[in-house]
């Protein structure tokens, strides 16, 4: 990943969408800086034409790097093929550039089939998640941050002007948060380019 400097900050550009991601950032309720590991994009097909819906970047909380020692020396191919590594990383942030309706529709399309029998807690969490985007105008360039604080807790922050200063919603459901994680980093990710890029980033970090 090639770095570019804008002002005092370093960025990496996702090549297919030209969206730039800061290499390091700090978010509300995250005490440690987050480091960018990889970028990718989600593409959907409309009338046989592939349309890039959003760009995404995965950030790793530096405080959990000691948990990854067992993976030192593994290649990017080995890392990408073993989802248990991704399952051990919960404090991450996905950054997307997308309008609210398209963003939720794309997420719901991937989440719903993975939750076969949603519990009342799951239904409530999905309702909270959905309500964040309903009736909300998200212009091009808006950032949506999803931060896994622990397996059953995810923070959602939305910002149209730089990094967010507050949390918009807290999602508390083990099924919803883990299924959403699986959507991006499981065996059948919606953005293979993101998972592949993250695997390369991790392989570099773990050398």
From TrEMBL:
Domain Chalcone isomerase, residue spans: 18-203
SUPFAM superfamilies noted in UniProt: Chalcone isomerase
InterPro entries: Chalcone_isomerase (IPR016087), Chalcone_isomerase_3-sand (IPR016088), Chalcone_isomerase_bundle_sf (IPR016089), Chalcone_isomerase_sf (IPR036298)
GO molecular function, one term: intramolecular lyase activity
Pfam family, any one: Chalcone
UniProt record similarity statement: Belongs to the chalcone isomerase family.
Official protein name in the record: Chalcone-flavonone isomerase family protein
UniProt organism field: Vitis vinifera
Gene behind this protein: FAP3_1
């Amino acid at each position: 990943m090639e770095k570019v400097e804008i002002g005092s900050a370093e960025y990496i550009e996702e090549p297919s969408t030209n969206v730039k991601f800061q290499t390091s950032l700090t978010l509300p309720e995250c005490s440690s800086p987050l480091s960018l590991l990889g970028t990718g994009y989600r593409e959907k097909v409309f009338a046989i034409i592939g349309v890039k819906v959003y760009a995404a970047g995965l950030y790793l909380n530096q405080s959990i790097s000691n948990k990854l020692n067992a993976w030192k020396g593994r290649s990017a191919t080995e890392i990408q093929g073993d989802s248990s590594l991704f399952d051990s990383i919960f404090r991450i942030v996905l950054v997307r550039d997308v309008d609210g309706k398209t963003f939720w529709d794309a997420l719901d399309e991937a989440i719903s089939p993975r939750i076969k029998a949603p519990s009342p807690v799951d239904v409530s969490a999905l309702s909270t998640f959905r309500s964040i985007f309903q009736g909300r105008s998200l212009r091009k360039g808006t950032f949506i941050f999803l931060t896994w604080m622990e397996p059953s807790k995810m923070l959602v922050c939305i910002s149209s002007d730089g990094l967010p200063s507050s949390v918009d919603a807290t999602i508390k459901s083990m099924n919803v948060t883990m299924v959403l994680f699986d959507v991006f980093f499981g065996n059948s990710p919606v953005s293979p380019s993101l998972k592949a890029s993250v695997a390369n980033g991790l392989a570099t970090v773990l050398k």
